[in-house]
Amino acid sequence: MFPYQDPARPADDRVRDLLARMTLPEKAGLLFHAPVAVTPDGGFVEEQAGPLPTAPTTEVLRDRHVRCLSLMAPVPAGPLARWHNEIQRLAAGSRLGIPVLVSSDPRHSANENPLTSVPSGGCSRWPEPLGFGALADDDTVRSFAEVVRAEYTAVGIRLALHPMADLASEPRWCRTAGTFGADPDVVARLAAAYVEGLQGRELGPESVAAMVKHWPGAGPQAGGEDAHFPGGKDQVYPDGRYAQHREVFRPALRAGAAAVMPYYGRPVGVPGLAGVGFAFDREVIAGQLRRDESFDGLVCTDFGLLTDVTLPDGSVWPARAWGAEHLDVAGRVLRLLDAGVDQFGGEWCPDVVVGLVESGRVPEARIDESAGRVLALMVRLGLFENPYVDEAHAVATVGRADFTAAGADAQRRSMVLLSGSLPLEPGIRLYVEGIDPEVAGRYASIVDSPTEADAALVRIGTPYEPRHRLPDAFFHQGRLDLPEDRREHLPALAATVPTIVDVFLDRAAVLPELAEHAATLLADFGAADDAVLDVVFGHATAEGRLPIELPSSMAAVEAHPEDRPGGTADPLFPLGHTARAPESPDARLPQGPGKGLE
């Protein structure tokens, strides 16, 4: 046993001993956080297999000394556990036997954007974080995060690239579903509870480390466009609320968050800042985060700040080096290290760091500082003692029945009754759109035409303007109002039969036509059909309150300051709204064949 592998020694001593034994290339490898794919049976992927860049697994581990891998694949528990153990065996055979720290974007919700989340791979399904914002309950979030911890640790994921502590202040922002909403107090409380649930009372061998993002607050995107793309690089503060966005992170940092991820955005007109992407700004990282918040954990950039990506169609997705586009890769690395960053997310080019040290542009002591933070996290997580997982335990844990039931309960509870009343009576004649008729048939008699129905139930998503090229197409951006065909069809349907409309809110929506014509308007935040039907038919109650505001018009959205949480002119439904009357029985919708709404 090497001294750095002795768990009886203080963590700081173990890290110092290991750093003293490491070569410069080995240290440099620790500064990179590479995305990797996995085959369905748990095999390594050595070539890019999809539209998004992934690293060649064996090469980055064996030859480039990378030890932080972000898992991009929705692989079932058994194969994923086997893959994890194989990468740990490969790492154990290296000169110093440094283990691998595996991370993941969220895996427990309905979001299908591979740049911001990962399909579950069998994990229990819960509402989006925005749904937890609708419940605004610390204990529910803490319990959810404990389930995430159990399922992640079972397959070897020990670093969560979440939660988001961003304020959803710009109604058009496509990342809203991943936030806890627009109420600063709620967001701050729930982000801290999430960290506590992932990490436990203290960071240790049973923990999943939390990487809170996106410091110092994504959300006030100019025109609502996201900073993944050049057209959304600017974050603006017409209401002067930069400090409010930053302060929401404080409870999560005080809860002991192990890591922080800054956002891509370039702040415009903020005194004291350099007008470059947050990760490139020394005042934002070394100053406001490390100096002012006393944060000494790991800082990892959001993915893709260094290198451009050539997409399958031959187009180039530029590195998100906003304000530093003129710098080459080495210049960007130098600027990020000077700002106080430790790791480069989504990249695997440690030779650039080696070159900067060998040319005298970066002292090796600076590399030791960041490599030491990575090693310290691995030590605290107990990876040097036992990095392996038990495949049978993984299969038995991921998607466990009680976890799945708790997730389904949260889906139901988080829904918001926006207008009208519930429930429907079982057995009525029901016309459905956007919902599985087979599932609905367990609750009512399904008919093919609205003219034959006692009521209609329609599920729709939040309106958006489709982008037709990758990776833009993964993001729901642009206008929030219904397209013309929907504006015509849904009121016409409601004129034919009493209609319940359920809207999956992954960001704000402008829905005055539905508020006017629908008999009942519901919002969900990622709910299965049976969860929605349980609420509609009275088997469960929609307990949520709107965690974001629903504006009355696009004109109100466009006039709204991007950094102000809520406060559009004359909102259709304000922040915190619910039509539920908790102390009085709900009025009932159609009771049976031939009965309409009063």
Describe how the helices and strands are arranged.
Layout: H1 11-21, H2 24-29, E1 32-36, H3 57-63, E2 68-71, H4 77-92, E3 101-104, H5 129-135, H6 138-155, E4 157-160, H7 184-199, E5 209-215, E6 234-236, H8 242-247, H9 250-254, E7 259-262, E8 266-268, H10 282-293, E9 298-299, E10 309-310, E11 316-317, H11 329-339, E12 344-345, H12 350-358, H13 364-380, H14 391-397, H15 401-414, E13 416-419, E14 429-433, H16 437-440, E15 445-446, E16 455-461, H17 484-496, E17 499-504, H18 512-517, E18 520-524, H19 529-536, H20 554-559
Parallel strand pairs: 1-2, 1-12, 2-3, 3-4, 4-5, 5-7, 6-8, 7-9, 14-15, 14-16, 16-17, 17-18
Antiparallel strand pairs: 10-11, 13-18
Brief write-up:
With 598 residues, the chain is α/β, with parallel strands linked by helices. It has 20 helices and 18 strands.
Question: What does this protein structure show overall?
Answer:
- The chain has 598 residues and is an alpha/beta fold.
- Helices cover 33% and strands 12% of the residues.
- It contains 20 helices and 18 strands.
- The protein has helices at residues 11-21, 24-29, 57-63, 77-92, 129-135, 138-155, 184-199, 242-247, 250-254, 282-293, 329-339, 350-358, 364-380, 391-397, 401-414, 437-440, 484-496, 512-517, 529-536, 554-559; strands at 32-36, 68-71, 101-104, 157-160, 209-215, 234-236, 259-262, 266-268, 298-299, 309-310, 316-317, 344-345, 416-419, 429-433, 445-446, 455-461, 499-504, 520-524.
- It has an eight-stranded parallel beta sheet. A six-stranded mixed beta sheet has the order 13-18-17-16-14-15, sandwiched between helices. Strands 6-8 form a two-stranded parallel sheet.
- Helix 17 (484-496) links the parallel strand 16 and strand 17.
- The radius of gyration is 25 Å and the shape is globular.
- The N and C termini lie far apart (78 Å).
- 56% of the residues are buried.
- Residues 584-598 have low confidence and may be disordered.
